[in-house]
Amino acid sequence: AADVLSVFAGSMVACGEDDDDDEDFEANLTAAAEVNPPAGNPTATGVANIVLEDRVVTVTVDVSGQTTSNITMAHIHGPASTTANAGIVLDFVPSMTAVINAGTRTGRIVSASFDLDALTVSSTGVLRVEPDVLIDMLNTGQAYVNVHTVTNPGGEIRGQILRD
């Protein structure tokens, strides 16, 4: 019985080590990463930190320098490589109301947590793909963060999300 318990305990540890649902990710945001060159010679950069734990995605996005104009929205897009654009899969806009209304151009623009199992999947909602699809995109590097501005409605700074 002790041997069986030991094997069971060892397999539980191994499962925890391989858990694809507890990860840290980062995206370095630049104008150069945009597929379509943004207007106005943007010099702002940014960092998005994403933590996935127990199917809750916690996101912070910080912009350094000044964007060319007021920030209007930010999202996770996917699936896409660094050379392709894709649709929105997780929309940060509902958590950015104060930032958008203040005409923000720098600083922390997103600080929010999203319980993937509590969100309804909708083509216009916060979560636009099934939770497991989003998790797979994060784990395979097929998602990116894009920050949009008045001057660059298609995106001003962008960065591929990679494991941290």
Structure, explained:
This protein is α+β, with helices and mostly antiparallel strands and 164 residues long. It contains three helices and nine strands. It has helices at residues 2-17, 97-101, 131-140; strands at residues 22-29, 45-53, 56-64, 71-77, 88-91, 107-115, 144-149, 157-160, 162-163. A five-stranded antiparallel sheet has the order 6-3-2-1-9, covered by helices on one side. β7 and β8 form a beta hairpin. The longest helix is centred in the N-terminal third of the chain and has 16 residues, at 2-17. The radius of gyration is 18 Å and the shape is globular. Mean pLDDT is 91; it is low at 2-19.
What attributes characterize this protein structure?
9 strands; 3 helices; 35% strand; 164 residues; four-stranded antiparallel sheet; single chain; alpha+beta; 19% helix; disordered N terminus
Query: What characterizes the major β-sheet?
Result: 5 strands, antiparallel
Sum up the overall morphology in one term. globular
Distance between the termini: 41 Å
In angstroms, what is the radius of gyration? 18 Å
Contiguous runs where pLDDT drops below 50 for at least 5 residues: 2-19
Strand arrangement, largest sheet?
6-3-2-1-9
Sheet/helix structural class: alpha+beta
Percent of residues in helices comes to: 10-25%
Strand % is 35-45%
Helix segment count?
3
H/E series: HEEEEEHEHEEE
Annotation, overall tally of beta strands? 9
What average pLDDT do the residues reach? 91
